[in-house]
Amino acid sequence: MNAHPATMLPGEPAPFSQTLETDSQPRLLLVDDEPRLLSSLYELLQGRGYRLTTAPSGSDALAHLSRQHFDLVLLDLRLPDIGGHEIMDFINEKGIDADVIVMSGEIGIDAAIGALKRGAYSYLRKPYSREELLSTVSNALQRRRLTLDNARIANQLENSEKMYRYLVDSSPDIIYTLNHEGRFTFVNDRAYQLLGYTREELIGQHYSILVHEEDLERARYVFNERRVDERASRNVELRLKCRGGNGHDRTFNTTLMTISLNAIGMHVPDQEVRKLEFFGTYGVARDITDRKRAEEVISYQAYHDILTDLPNRILFKDRLGLAVIQAKRKQTELAVMFIDLDRFKLVNDTLGHVKGDELLQQAAGRLKECLRKGDTLARQGGDEFTIVLPELRDRDDARMVADKFLEVLQEPFDLDGHEVHISASIGIAIYPKDGESIDELLRHADIAMYQVKALGKNGHSFYHDSMLEVSHQKIALEQALRRALEHDELEMFYQPQIDAMSGRITGAEALMRWNHPTRGRLSAGEFLPFAEENGLMLPISDWMIGALCRDMLHWNAIGGSDIRLSLNLSPQYLDRGDFFEKMRGALARYGISPQQIEVEITENICIRNPQYAIEQLNKLCQLGVSIAIDDFGTGYSSLSYLHRFPIHTVKIDQSFVKEIHQEDGHYPVILAIISIARGLGLNLIAEGVETEEQARYLRANGCLTMQGYLFYRPISLQDFMAALRTQSGGALRAVQA
């Protein structure tokens, strides 16, 4: 009997592992040499959700089994060419995945035993009932489906276990389990990579062999965690010991949770489970050593000055607060010092910021060597340091430390071959007399330090209540000085410069005065240094340029156009980028000839930013303004500036002029300056001439232009114009020969 064409499928069937999932119709191969029985079997199974193929002989069955996949073979044992046992042997030899139901009319037991030995699912003896066949086929396919599902689940479990083991051993964290005694029952490979202990060395060992001695108490609670869910320990930091001789402990962030027998499948004897509700702990330990080190670095940098490695102002306030609490508890005194390095800015501007930083580092090292172990030295910023000295016996302790500071700072500093000298101004406040709060103590120490600066620097001073009044006066002075600009309280005075041969006024130095509403007229020295410190020199200098140009219009109108005006220039004003444009604009606006203007500079201007200063001064020279160097001979590098800077005039400082007491005396410094000016072809002016002897000595040695009280004090514009009018009338007082 030929196979029914309708039951044949073209091409190779899908693998059996996919058949029951992707194809809902199982494939059945019906093998019988009786056409009537084969047709009857086909009709019985048709329409029941099966895909049927028939084979009337053994050779046809083998051909179908070789080409296609079948889930179930219904096989007659007695076939004309090849027997059923041989077909089953073929199925087994080829590893064909198909179940077999044997249908046979043989009565002997041997045929059935042979079929079952070869793996037949069932043996049906002909004639069989319809229900028996259908039930056997259904049961065979159901068992097959269950077997497949079990195989798939087992395969998934095996893959999951492999994946889990891979993930556990590849984890960046240490994963472990402990029994109820705290001994390791499992640990992954990461423990060896991080700690140097193999799995074999740790299994059975107590966790305490790994924990740093100082963390054992905390570890006792963490490694014996019995709680579950959200109550379990999270993110507990412990230090674990490493093996390998690197000497470093590693810090771990440990997350723990309790495990149960059913969930994890840890094999503990039944009676032990009944006896112990808690029997083990599962943990994940993450290495946070690098993070902790980074946090320590960040924390250190947040509370320390990077340049000097000293505590910064935040940490200093914290330590001062603790010291105050301690002093209050013990009823003792403590001292707070505020130190400002004198002449640091000069060094910084002269040698550059790199050398300035080196100076700060060396100074900090010297200060630190003078302190006790419990004292704190901190850098406030710039060249300012603060110190707290706890547990003083008396004020003399603080005095001795301050004296020691001054002593060590007076020793020269070597900055790559540059020998530098500095000093310090130190203010001291004592707890509780000078304040009980951190801010009070710091503020009063700061006030005392400024008192030292006002008295000439290079010293120390204890705070006194009277200093607070001075500080308040400075604040009031700043406010009043700002109002002075608004209310036109500033005025320019002029000190004439005299030709010693003719007695005529050839120039004048502009000097500022403040007509204070309550204190009267103040000289420049009483308020301009304060203006320099508080950022008021820029608006004051702007006002001065305009005021001078307006005044020159008045004296030019009465014939004073040949009088040269000398004006002192603030270093801050020169540093400002628009200084030159402001000067040029003012001269053009008022119609003043630049040749009438001489700008006086000091050595301080030159050393702040030499190259920039040279550029600015060259611009002025190109405009027609001349340059004078004031207080010549008092600095360190004046001679070099005469070559580097476009200087036209040298002014002999009054400190040298005051030394002249006899007309026929010998004063080598004066003679040297006159000789230098003459050799370089520079104009020469002597300042502070107050006696006839001084005037005659200077004139006799070649200095013919002078200014000082011998001739004129600084006078107002009205008096200066009156002097010019008198000079024009020929009544100017002549200098006696």
Automatic annotation (TrEMBL):
CDD domains: EAL (cd01948), GGDEF (cd01949), PAS (cd00130). InterPro entries: Biofilm_reg_signaling (IPR052155), CheY-like_superfamily (IPR011006), EAL_dom (IPR001633), EAL_sf (IPR035919), GGDEF_dom (IPR000160), Nucleotide_cyclase (IPR029787), PAS (IPR000014), PAS-like_dom_sf (IPR035965). The keyword Thylakoid does not apply. The keyword Phosphoprotein applies. Keywords: Phosphoprotein. Residues 160-231 form the PAS domain. Gene3D superfamilies: 3.30.70.270, 3.40.50.2300, EAL domain, PAS domain. Residues 474-728 form the EAL domain. Residues 27-141 form the Response regulatory domain. The modification 4-aspartylphosphate is found at residue 76. It comes from the Bacteria. GO terms for molecular function: catalytic activity. Residues 332-465 form the GGDEF domain. It holds the Pfam family PAS. GO terms for biological process: phosphorelay signal transduction system; regulation of DNA-templated transcription. This is EAL domain-containing protein.
